[in-house]
């Protein structure tokens, strides 16, 4: 027998199904990522969908029909109107929602991730207009926090091999193992670490900052072009190494509206 349940969530993605129906993926506070079908039928889908088509926190009444979920009703809990009104912010938020969509497995409840996602939406909503560079930085910062929450927190302080604290200017970046390895270890065991890449102190500093600080504090620091490029490469290498699916576009390209 079908059962009804209520949950609060944020729509991550959508795709059309047949003529009148649409599948949605949502990240919910109580059930993690869920997929559900919105049926058009003879009732206009538009009555349900306004809340499902824009970035918002919504109350969902879902029907568990054993094979799949369908949505019975929706109600908006919290809107992010400045995101919806600004093409650049909307692109940034879509990029972040895409990362959550491809980085999480269905039905794994994660209240920490839910909070981080709503904090991110609120911060982007309240932020002043964002440059493409700043948006790209924020998207990568979100990606780093997401990696940490889903179990891939990068090692940024101690060598992955010998566990000693890093010395400035004498370490390399190795994404498959998720962090930094000291020069001594990478030379000693060159066959294991041959793919480790040089990294500058400024880049590591920016990665630490992006992972640790709240989004509100990430609007200020100056972002030199070469440091930002190295930062993006490092975060993307982590995502490619650890996500089950590779993002649809690079973190920088995702923010060029
Ligand atoms: Zn070492």
From TrEMBL:
<dbReference type="GO" id="GO:0006310">
    <property type="term" value="P:DNA recombination"/>
</dbReference>
<dbReference type="InterPro" id="IPR003717">
    <property type="entry name" value="RecO"/>
</dbReference>
<feature type="domain" description="DNA replication/recombination mediator RecO N-terminal">
    <location>
        <begin position="1"/>
        <end position="75"/>
    </location>
</feature>
<comment type="similarity">
    <text>Belongs to the RecO family.</text>
</comment>
<dbReference type="Pfam" id="PF02565">
    <property type="entry name" value="RecO_C"/>
</dbReference>
<dbReference type="InterPro" id="IPR042242">
    <property type="entry name" value="RecO_C"/>
</dbReference>
<dbReference type="GO" id="GO:0043590">
    <property type="term" value="C:bacterial nucleoid"/>
</dbReference>
<dbReference type="Pfam" id="PF11967">
    <property type="entry name" value="RecO_N"/>
</dbReference>
<dbReference type="InterPro" id="IPR037278">
    <property type="entry name" value="ARFGAP/RecO"/>
</dbReference>
<dbReference type="InterPro" id="IPR022572">
    <property type="entry name" value="DNA_rep/recomb_RecO_N"/>
</dbReference>
<keyword id="KW-0233">DNA recombination</keyword>
<dbReference type="GO" id="GO:0006302">
    <property type="term" value="P:double-strand break repair"/>
</dbReference>
<dbReference type="InterPro" id="IPR012340">
    <property type="entry name" value="NA-bd_OB-fold"/>
</dbReference>
<keyword id="KW-0234">DNA repair</keyword>
<protein>
    <recommendedName>
        <fullName>DNA repair protein RecO</fullName>
    </recommendedName>
</protein>
<keyword id="KW-0227">DNA damage</keyword>
<comment type="function">
    <text>Involved in DNA repair and RecF pathway recombination.</text>
</comment>
